[in-house]
Design a protein that fits this description.
The protein contains 7 helices and 7 strands. With 247 residues, it is α/β, with parallel strands linked by helices. A 7-stranded parallel β-sheet has the order 3-2-1-4-5-6-7, sandwiched between helices. The termini are far apart. The mean pLDDT is 93.
Length: 247
């Protein structure tokens, strides 16, 4: 990335050790942002993403811990602020699934999905906003899902978390827009990642006009735009990336 100017401040991408999160981390690094590579449970994969970014001339720091855990978010922000400066771009990508029909979903599975996908994103956003508001620049981008606004049997907890994330996005956007801070969501459909490896493919592909799953890089390209200065008048919206499935 020799021709990319070094930016002041940095970006934090949660759940960035693989799949969509890793692609987003690489895309934002290519725009000159120093990257906090958040991960939970796979230190080797996170280190590999950091290595890729640094090999391309960028700056990155791996940050381990569960965003739903006590104190983890503050630790991440403190480490990034000390190393790279204020967090001015936040991508809430960390997510889990625990599928089952509604009568079969236990409290633990419900709480784990909501705590990670929605509550973790809220707490991370809450921590990031004061700095962004003082800087009069900030980008919060939440990775939602097409399952949020549309039904998908067997994913009541996941759908509730993603629908809540979209609602959070819209509300926060209205609260901070006048201070130069935007908040948007990206809602992928079927994307070829480890998280969707167990999703039955042929039947779902038949429902996608593009007749293929998306790629992590295609989602990351949308995030890269929403994080840019050119997207300063785009806020409170959800950008759907699903090959036409929800058209």
């Amino acid at each position: 990335m020799p021709d990319v100017p070094v930016r002041e401040g940095c970006a934090l991408v949660t759940g960035a050790s693989r799949g969509i999160g890793a692609a987003i981390a690489r895309a934002l690094a290519s725009e000159g942002w120093a990257i906090g590579v958040g991960y939970h449970g796979n230190a080797d994969a996170a280190a590999a993403v950091v290595g890729e970014i640094e090999a391309a001339g960028g700056r990155a720091l791996a940050l381990g811990g569960d965003v739903a855990g006590d104190g983890v978010i503050e630790q991440h922000f403190a480490a990034l602020e000390e190393r790279f400066g204020p967090v001015l771009v936040l991508v809430n990508n960390a997510g889990v699934r625990a599928d089952g029909l509604a009568p079969q979903i236990g409290d633990e599975a419900w709480d784990r999905v909501l705590d990670t996908n929605l509550s973790g994103a809220f707490r991370t956003t809450r921590r990031a906003l004061p700095t962004m508001l003082r800087a009069r620049f900030g980008r919060v981008i939440n990775i939602a899902s097409v399952v949020g606004p549309r039904a998908n049997a067997g994913q009541a907890n996941y759908a509730a978390s993603k629908a809540g994330l979209i609602g959070l996005t819209r509300t926060v956007a209205t609260e901070v827009a006048r201070r130069g801070v935007t908040c948007n969501a990206v809602a992928p459909g079927l994307v070829d990642t480890e998280l969707t490896a167990d999703v039955p493919g042929d039947e779902l592909r038949a429902r996608i006009p593009a007749r293929r799953p998306g790629t992590a890089d295609e989602v990351a390209a949308c995030v890269r735009f929403l994080a840019s200065e050119e997207a300063g008048y785009v806020t409170g919206t959800t950008l759907t990336v699903d090959g036409g499935m929800s058209a």
